[in-house]
């Protein structure tokens, strides 16, 4: 009995496959769709209810996976998944059988040779890998709806504002356009749901001290001499956390200035230790400011970190000036005290010689006698 049931089931399946309206495989559907009359160079024709030909609408959405910012060279490298969707009535196969797959999936580079695809490109890109590759998938649905998903790595220039460095602002724009189809032939639109047109789940940003603080997207029309083209724009606004710069530059520079103040507590006649501390602080500050300046390109305007380093240098310079002034007046005081002591010694010796007939003191200053007591100067010389 079981054998008869199994035989009946197998016979029924073979009968279904033998019917003209039976199941059709993906390969057979693809071969039937892409026939000799299908031209990949001609865009799909979209006819409205009035019989007027309308531009083909390409719906776009993307998922941004990672961003790598290079502030030295002023560009960002973005890895994203781009999803485009349009309708090609020539690829509809829902009338070709009762048992058909919901979609036909195509892979590999030959996708662009089989069916028409939008000639999407990014105008501002520096380096791009936007061609269909092994990282792209095209799905053709039974009603002629075509979905193309591909993985892109693009490099874009960014507008970087260093006026608040290290708290800087970076703005990068991703623009999508058609290379050869004007707006009356092809119209780009963001996905139907604006909240899901661009997704950022598990976004990775490098360096880690940058963060994405704002994202906006819009649709515009770009005008060229060859015509007007539909354009989709994604504006990425990055901010920069300055916690690392606080530890690398601001705190060390503050400590260097405070260390230089140690020279103020050293006794004023210790010129060598005071000068060594001040000059060492100046050299360390120079190395630190050079390291900070090498973090970003040169600009025509001053930045907050430049002002900070300038103030630190000013404090160190004032310390060196104070050291020189103190050393000068201390030396002047010492010379004055020595001269006064010498004069007192000479005067005492001279008085002893003048009143008691003692021999002149060997430390007498003959110049002082010549200026102040010339007669006695003659006596001293003659004796």
Offer a few descriptive terms.
383 residues, alpha+beta, Acetylcholine Binding Protein, Chain: A, Methane Monooxygenase Hydroxylase, Chain G, domain 1, two-stranded antiparallel ribbon, 29% strand, rod-shaped, disordered N terminus
Corresponding CATH architecture of the largest domain:
Distorted Sandwich
Task: Specify the overall morphology.
Answer: rod-shaped
- Rg is 44 Å
Fourth CATH level, the homologous superfamily of the largest domain: Neurotransmitter-gated ion-channel ligand-binding domain
The major β-sheet equals:
13 strands, mixed
* Domains (count): 2
How big a fraction of the residues is strand? 25-35%
Question: What's the average pLDDT?
Answer: 78
> What do we call the CATH topology of the largest domain?
Acetylcholine Binding Protein, Chain: A
The H/E string reads HHEEEEEHEEEEEEEEEEHHHHH
Q: What is the count of helical runs?
A: 8
CATH classification, class level of the largest domain: Mainly Beta
Structural class: alpha+beta
Q: What is the helical fraction, as a range of percent?
A: 25-40%
Question: Can you walk me through this structure?
Answer:
The chain is an alpha+beta fold. 36% of the residues lie in helices and 29% in strands. It is built from 8 helices and 15 strands. Strands 3, 4, 5, 6, 7, 8, 9, 10, 11, 12, 13, 14 and 15 form a 13-stranded mixed β-sheet that branches. The protein has a two-stranded antiparallel sheet with strand order 1-2. Strand 1 and strand 2 (53-54) form a beta hairpin. The N and C termini lie far apart (160 Å).
Helix-strand blueprint:
Layout: H1 2-18, H2 26-33, E1 46-47, E2 53-54, E3 56-70, E4 75-87, E5 103-106, H3 111-114, E6 120-121, E7 127-128, E8 136-141, E9 145-161, E10 169-178, E11 186-190, E12 198-199, E13 204-206, E14 210-224, E15 227-240, H4 243-260, H5 271-293, H6 304-356, H7 366-372, H8 374-382
Parallel strand pairs: 3-11, 3-12, 3-13
Antiparallel strand pairs: 1-2, 3-4, 4-9, 5-8, 6-10, 7-9, 8-9, 9-10, 10-15, 14-15
């Amino acid at each position: 009995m079981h054998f008869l049931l199994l035989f009946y089931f197998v016979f029924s399946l073979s009968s279904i496959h033998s019917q003209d309206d039976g199941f059709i495989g993906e390969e057979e559907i693809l071969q039937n769709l892409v026939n000799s009359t299908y031209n990949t160079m001609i865009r799909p024709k979209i006819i409205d209810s009035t019989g007027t030909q309308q531009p083909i609408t390409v719906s776009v959405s993307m998922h941004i996976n990672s961003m790598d910012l290079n502030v030295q060279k002023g560009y960002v490298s973005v890895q994203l998944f781009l999803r485009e969707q349009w309708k090609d009535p020539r690829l509809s196969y829902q009338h070709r059988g009762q048992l058909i797959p919901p979609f036909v999936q195509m892979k590999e580079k030959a996708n662009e040779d089989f069916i028409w695809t939008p000639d999407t490109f990014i105008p501002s890109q520096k380096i791009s890998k936007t061609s269909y590759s092994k990282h792209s998938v095209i799905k053709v649905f039974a009603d002629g709806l075509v979905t193309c998903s591909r993985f892109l790595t693009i490099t874009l220039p960014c507008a970087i504002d260093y006026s608040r460095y290290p708290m800087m602002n970076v703005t990068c724009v991703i623009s999508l356009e058609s290379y050869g189809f004007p707006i009356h032939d092809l119209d780009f639109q963001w996905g139907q749901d604006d909240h899901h047109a661009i997704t950022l789940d598990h976004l990775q940003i490098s360096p880690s001290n940058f963060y994405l603080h704002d994202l906006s997207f819009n649709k515009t029309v770009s005008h060229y001499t060859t015509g007007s083209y539909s354009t989709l724009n994604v504006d990425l606004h990055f901010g920069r956390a300055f916690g690392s710069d606080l530890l690398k530059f601001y705190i060390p520079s503050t400590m260097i200035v405070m260390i230089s103040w140690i020279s103020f507590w050293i006794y004023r006649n210790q010129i060598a230790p005071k000068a060594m501390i001040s000059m060492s602080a100046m050299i360390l500050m120079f190395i630190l400011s050079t390291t900070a300046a090498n973090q970003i390109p040169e600009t025509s305007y001053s930045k907050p970190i430049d002002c900070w380093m300038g103030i630190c240098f000013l404090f160190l310079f004032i310390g060196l000036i104070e050291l020189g002034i103190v050393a000068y007046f201390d030396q002047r005081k010492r010379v004055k005290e020595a001269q006064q002591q010498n004069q007192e010694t000479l005067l005492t010796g001279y008085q002893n010689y003048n009143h008691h007939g003692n021999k002149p003191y060997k430390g007498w200053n003959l110049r002082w006698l010549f200026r102040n007591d010339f007669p006695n100067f003659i006596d001293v010389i003659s004796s």
